[in-house]
Design brief:
mainly alpha, 6 helices
């Protein structure tokens, strides 16, 4: 074998090995992007579908009021909630905002509210400090949301209205369990002027 042929084989071998090596992990999406683009819209999908499916007594859901498309949409919503929450739960460190991002209500943090008291939501910097101070608690709360997403998937696949009612009726408390600890409130902020 010539030296040139040997060099070419060595180069191809190194390129092949380089392609098989460990890949750099994709950066974890910010908490703000996760909330605005994944968590809020998918939770809303779950709430919208279940709100239209209450039984005549209003104490449960009627499976007959949930269409095949609704069940499919619920499964997608549950999967997206589960996957993003799991990603945040397993992240080495989460970042609240990226460049140019502003969290909802940041403009009102510490400002007087129309009803006479200061609105108690935190700025992005304060939220980051709270998460950094208790990362295990943040991961635990994210895991609770991931579990709610997994239960939504299971309910949708089984077309189990009772299971869906259980998870959807508790979803607000799941969300509040993180908002209250890391955002300072579960109340919506005033709209910016």
């Amino acid at each position: 074998m010539s030296k040139q042929a040997g060099a070419i084989l060595l180069a191809w071998g190194l390129l092949a090995l380089w392609g098989c090596g460990p890949k750099a992990a994709a950066p974890t999406p910010t908490v703000n992007e996760s909330m605005t683009q994944v968590m809020a819209p998918n939770a809303q999908t779950i709430w919208d579908i279940t709100s239209g499916a209450f039984n005549d007594k209003g104490d449960g859901l009627a499976a007959s009021k949930i269409s095949a498309k609704d069940w499919a949409d619920l499964e997608v919503a549950g999967r997206q909630l589960r996957d993003r929450a799991q990603l945040l739960a397993e992240a080495h460190r989460v970042t609240v905002v990226g460049p140019g991002e502003v969290i909802m209500g940041e403009h009102a943090a510490g400002a007087p509210s129309p009803i006479g008291h200061e609105w108690d939501a935190a700025s992005a910097k304060q939220v980051q400090a709270m998460i950094d101070a208790k990362p295990a608690l943040f991961a635990q709360r994210a895991k609770v949301l991931a579990d709610a997403g997994a239960t939504t998937i299971k309910a949708a696949q089984a077309k189990d209205a009772a299971m869906l009612y259980g998870v959807s009726s508790n979803l607000d408390e799941v969300c509040d369990g993180c908002h209250q600890k890391f955002w300072g409130t579960d109340e919506p902020p005033p709209f910016p002027h």
